[in-house]
Amino acid sequence: MKKVAHARVDEPVARPSVIEIRNLQKVFAARDGNPVQALSSVSLDIAKGEFLTIVGPSGCGKSTLLRLVAGLADPSEGELLLNGSPITGPQRDMGIVFQSPVLFPWRSVMDNVLLPADVLKLDRRDARNRAEELLEIVGLSDFAKKYPNELSGGMQQRVAIARALVHRPSVVLMDEPFGALDAMTRDTMNLEIMRIWREAGTTILFVTHSIPEAVFLGERVVVMTARPGKIAEVVDVDLPANRGIDIVNTDHFGTYARRIRNHFNARGLD
Amino acid sequence: MAVTTEGAPAPRRKTLGETVRHRPEYVLGPLLLVVILSVWHGLVTWMEVPSYIVPKPYEVASAFYHGVFKGNYLYHAGVTLSEALSGFFIASSLGLVLGTLIAQSRLVEKTLYPYLITIQTTPKIAVAPLLIIWFGFGMTSKVVIAATVAFFPVLVNVIAGLRSIDREKIELMRSLNASKWQMFRMARLPSALPIIFAGLNVAIVFSILGAIVGEFVGSKAGLGNVILQANVNMDTSSIFAVLVCLAIIGISMHGLMGFLQRRLVFWGNSGPPS
Ligand SMILES: Nc1ncnc2c1ncn2[C@@H]1O[C@H](COP(=O)(O)OP(=O)(O)O)[C@@H](O)[C@H]1O
Ligand SMILES: [Mg+2]
Q1: Which tens digit of pLDDT belongs to each residue from B16-45?
Q2: pLDDT in tens, B68-79
Q3: Total domain count, chain A
Q4: Cα of A56 from ligand 2 centre, angstroms
Q5: Is the CB–ligand 1 distance for residue A58 below 6 Å?
Q6: Burial of B224 (0-12, 13-18, 19+ CB in 10 A)
Q7: For labelling alongside A106, which of A19, B16, B19, B155 has CA 20 to 30 A away?
């Protein structure tokens, strides 16, 4: 039953791996003396252009995994490769979206999107064009000159998504980006992120604790369990490419969701 | 008054009525002043308080008019204001630079912070006589005193402000491989501005206070000096008139800081109440 992720033989042309995770461990030294094992022997290959979702209960190490991939923290053990070379620190080739938008209130929407371009000292004109393009994609062209506190939560998160893409990273990491949004906005955002993914062709690692969201978005769903955080199963999701939100009502979708939920029935999730 | 007159022209009554309804403070504020002045006048007259103890409002107004337009209040106000502003600028520049340097190292910050808080909470005004001995009776000593009292609120708030940035903004900048300088310029400093401004607001008031106290301890000019002179002559009306001058200076400085703050920190709603 368990499918450990490796190059899939059934595919005619195997996509090359962008990220390779080998036997990753992360142990936090806790104050009370008992170290916390946040991740335990996690191995995963992420193919170029793939939309991978990671689902699991809170505290199972999803954020930790993402932070390690982002180079924001060092693994205790194991290997992390981006395009074949070890990740030793933050990479310019990645974009990150956090659970909260983390916008700079003193920057306009446009300037927030341009933040990575400013930090990475990219060509300003080029970046501006790209930012305008992205604001168009996320439907915020008319808000370029506004400031974050003039936008709703959903709009702010869309700015954050545009910001994560402005420097054309090949990998985008998203840590429960829609967790704070209401259900309806969330559905819209899910559709939008799929469209963006198809248009931008980037690899996306998307962390969520919502099973339907994971199944809806992911080409593959990595199911994680807690204490210690490890991969329970990697589920290949085979759903029509241009699916609408109503697919969640189909049996096919339900089968995937049930299969994933089975991993958590003992403990409960959400 | 129009509000109470029956049958007065409708439009005028309406506008005033609307003002009262929407912004009652615009009417109540001045009204309160009138009430206070009337009660003041009434009490002083009724209790036959002599002018050298508490002057009547119009005596204060007259002293103010003479001091400002016939006398040299403007010159003295200029002296006090220059002392206070020079002190304020020295204090804020030093506070910004030193605060930034201290905030660079967590260890330095943690080591120094308790001392800074201790100094911050001790009344530094007590060293004013000492500073007069060191820097003389001229403006320099007042500038130093003003700077001394205004420095710590700036310093402490710069450190607290730079420390106030949320973890996620740091992570975001880190994920972009931002240099230390970029981190400071693009994230830490702007995040700190609302708190830094709160410190500057305290500092501007403190620097005026410092200048006045300095002038009390020993001076040749300035509004503090005018108060002392008037005190010797039992010229209470003039003392009150100078207090009015000081109030005007204080409010102007406070307003100026509020204006700058609304301009520079337009995203934070922590501006001083008007
Ligand atoms: N910086 C840290 N120091 C100590 N423990 C941590 C730290 N970060 C995460 N942990 C612990 O590691 C585990 C996994 O955390 P996290 O990756 O945030 O989980 P998730 O994102 O799945 O909710 C949790 O038990 C958490 O308490
Ligand atoms: Mg998390």
Answers
A1: 777 778 888 888 889 999 999 999 999 989
A2: 999 899 999 999
A3: 2
A4: 10
A5: yes
A6: buried
A7: B155
